[in-house]
Amino acid sequence: AQSVTQPDIHITVSEGASLELRCNYSYGATPYLFWYVQSPGQGLQLLLKYFSGDTLVQGIKGFEAEFKRSQSSFNLRKPSVHWSDAAEYFCAVGAGTNFGNEKLTFGTGTRLTIIP
Amino acid sequence: EAGVTQFPSHSVIEKGQTVTLRCDPISGHDNLYWYRRVMGKEIKFLLHFVKESKQDESGMPNNRFLAERTGGTYSTLKVQPAELEDSGVYFCASSQVRGLTGELFFGEGSRLTVL
Fold this sequence. Notes:
The structure holds two protein chains of two kinds.
Chain A: E1 3-5, E2 10-14, E3 19-21, E4 24-26, E5 32-38, E6 44-50, E7 56-58, E8 64-68, E9 73-78, E10 87-94, E11 104-106, E12 110-115
Parallel strand pairs in A: 2-12
Antiparallel strand pairs in A: 1-4, 3-9, 5-6, 5-10, 7-8, 8-9, 10-11, 10-12
Chain B: E1 5-7, E2 10-13, E3 19-24, E4 31-37, E5 43-50, E6 53-56, E7 65-68, E8 75-79, E9 88-95, E10 105-106, E11 110-114
């Protein structure tokens, strides 16, 4: 069974500082990996995804993530956070193009607070 | 283009009552998913429709939950009778293509509080 662990429930970062949100997954084959963000009063929005190829993927809003198979990790990074990045971030894993199994397995989320 | 819309945004009911949540996917999206987040926990898959057919309902917790998608357009999720542990945020998502290569668009969620 697939699973996702986000070890940090809440992170506080100063505006302008760098950010790294951790995500570890468990999956038997090559996973499809995603990061979503939920801002207050909004639905989940896709930040980026990894299917194959280059292990460093670029997303929207200046975010990037690196897939490390040896560590079963897919950490999200941003070099300089903005106050508008305050939100909850979810890592998710899926089984790819298996049409019999199209569900995402999410982590518990990391709430990001930005301080001036 | 309208996104995924969910109604109601918040529902407060008493244990034993019935609640029906509605999801309108993006027009033309055949794939519709329901997910649920219980307070402080992970977002969990409930089920997946392809048009009006249930493709995967392995995440439905029990037979108090009934999902329908008549005509392959909007979907409803009924909880009857509601229990305290059903409280949480119910998310609907839709996508145009099968598999996970297509982007999944989520609604804002329907918050259910069972007292």
